[in-house]
């Protein structure tokens, strides 16, 4: 799969690993590329003008001109047919592989590229007219600096890049929307605006009774947060300017290792800026969390309905097991993601410069010339890709498979249930002590434990990612086995509920402390990276 990522300042950004330009403002004319680079700055792009009478805005294959942010791809001059050959003035012939060119530097706000469901990311420039390309180019603006650089291959579906960048940039909108929606629903319960067709059986010694309960938080908090995520690019007030189709998004699928530009851009950036920061984000990370997020929502709906609206009402464990099957597709998707990751990294370990593809022979010769100049020989470059470059990406991949922010996002549908129950307790006249015990012992404690449990789920999925059976059905059974092991781990936390059921606020505080310790243990490395 592709990768998508961004980072601040002029360091480097990871997007889909394979577009043509390297760090900095790159511009591509014909099947060539113009760019910026400076060994002191974290930008590295390349320029190569071609002698041609016919201008083609793409590289011949879909992996060309960033069809989205074409403004960042080429300047107005690039859209004009060159009537005369450049001859020996070609930057390639002059070996000016890292020449700075401010005039073609253009940027576009990241939020703009993510609007209309990532319309720009889903375009295919090789299927667009020059007028359409010019219109897209005009959506960008001249810039002398960038907050991040993007590079990607057109072989990867645009919707995956859209999802990856959207979640990475605006996941916090989901958290805020979830909290706001939960608060509004609780207030509406208190005011008697929302009906309560279900029944919640309270086991708390402070409030032992069966009370009316509603499903509205469980059903609609997720939808509100999803809408907030999709609308976030329209609401974003912070300008984060990117150069689309530039450096540092690494592809983590077999396609990545088959595209010469992908490898070249990463290696070129590292050559131009040895200490620069590569922020690498595999697309499969956000894809897996999106699937898991939806599955957790389905689980919460099934659990809440079974626990409050059926004959099994009050049987917490049975309701949990009944809804747990909704998580199976998510676990299977995570396992498949780890399989793709392994194949991709194995592809880099077996990288062979002679076998990689490039849609333009001119581009390929340009790249090989730069490689020989930078690394001395193509063999030295091959060893660099197989060794240091791959090792760097392996480390980054290992650190980014289950970040704390995404674990919080995946567990956020649980807030709907807590809004329903809190609203019911509040309307039924529960004491402040009872409400505090529920917030500490159930809401906060469950969120901390839930995030840690999702982290464990990813650890198990990675440990058992490789299929043990040839049959697809048996592979799903293997995912079911991973789910079963994970459920046993989750079940170990059930006694926590009995503590604050019986002891009220003191029991809730004790449960919260234990949950916090588990949470810190699971995300200790995340805290280390944050403070570091």
Automatic annotation (TrEMBL):
The chain crosses the membrane at residues 170-194, 289-306, 312-334, 406-429, 435-461, 473-494, 500-524. The keyword Transmembrane helix applies. It comes from the Eukaryota. Keywords: Membrane, Transmembrane, Transmembrane helix. The keyword Repeat does not apply. This is Transmembrane protein. It comes from Symbiodinium pilosum (Dinoflagellate).
């Amino acid at each position: 799969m592709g990768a998508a990522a961004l980072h601040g300042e002029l360091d480097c950004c990871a997007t889909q690993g394979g577009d043509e330009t390297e760090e900095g403002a790159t511009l591509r004319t014909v099947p060539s590329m113009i760019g910026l680079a400076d060994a002191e700055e974290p930008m590295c792009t390349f320029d190569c003008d071609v002698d041609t009478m016919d201008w083609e805005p793409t590289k011949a294959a879909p992996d060309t001109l960033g069809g989205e942010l074409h403004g960042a791809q080429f300047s107005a001059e690039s859209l004009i047919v060159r009537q005369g050959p450049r001859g020996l003035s070609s930057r390639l012939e002059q070996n000016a592989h890292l020449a700075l060119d401010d005039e073609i530097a253009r940027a576009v706000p990241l939020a703009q590229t993510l609007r209309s469901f990532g319309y720009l990311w889903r375009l295919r420039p090789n299927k667009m007219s020059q007028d359409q390309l010019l219109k897209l180019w005009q959506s960008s603006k001249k810039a002398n600096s960038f907050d991040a650089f993007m590079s990607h291959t057109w072989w990867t579906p645009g919707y995956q890049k859209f999802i990856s960048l959207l979640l990475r940039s605006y996941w916090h909108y989901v958290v805020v929307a979830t909290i706001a929606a939960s608060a509004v629903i609780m207030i509406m319960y208190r005011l008697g605006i929302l009906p309560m067709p279900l029944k919640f059986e309270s086991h708390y010694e402070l409030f032992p009774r069966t009370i009316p309960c509603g499903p509205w938080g469980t059903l609609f908090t997720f939808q509100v947060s999803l809408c907030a995520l999709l609308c976030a690019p329209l609401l974003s007030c912070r300008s984060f300017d990117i150069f689309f189709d530039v450096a540092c998004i690494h592809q983590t699928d077999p396609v990545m290792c088959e595209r010469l530009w992908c490898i070249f851009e990463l290696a070129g950036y590292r050559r131009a800026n040895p200490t620069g920061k590569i922020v690498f984000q595999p697309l499969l990370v956000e894809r897996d969390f999106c699937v898991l997020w939806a599955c957790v929502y389905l689980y919460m709906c099934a659990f809440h309905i079974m626990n409050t609206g059926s004959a099994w009402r009050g049987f917490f464990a049975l309701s949990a097991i009944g809804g747990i099957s909704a998580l199976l597709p998510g676990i299977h998707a995570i396992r498949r993601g780890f399989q793709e990751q392994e194949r991709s990294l194995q592809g880099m370990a077996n990288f062979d410069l002679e076998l990689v593809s490039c849609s333009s022979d001119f581009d390929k010769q340009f790249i090989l010339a730069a490689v020989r100049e930078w690394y001395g020989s193509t063999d030295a470059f091959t060893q660099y890709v197989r060794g240091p470059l791959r090792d760097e990406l392996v480390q980054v991949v290992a650190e980014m498979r289950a970040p704390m922010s995404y674990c919080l996002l995946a567990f956020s549908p649980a807030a709907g249930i807590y809004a329903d129950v809190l609203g019911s307790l509040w309307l039924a006249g529960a004491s402040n002590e009872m409400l505090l015990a529920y917030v500490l012992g159930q809401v906060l404690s469950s969120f901390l434990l839930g995030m840690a449990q999702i982290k464990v789920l990813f650890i198990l999925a990675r440990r058992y990612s490789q299929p043990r059976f040839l049959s697809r059905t048996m592979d799903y059974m293997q995912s079911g086995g991973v789910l079963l092991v994970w459920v046993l781990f989750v079940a170990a936390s059930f006694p926590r509920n009995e503590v604050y059921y019986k002891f009220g606020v003191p029991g809730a505080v004790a449960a919260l402390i234990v949950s916090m310790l588990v949470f810190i243990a699971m995300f200790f490395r995340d805290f280390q990276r944050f403070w570091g």
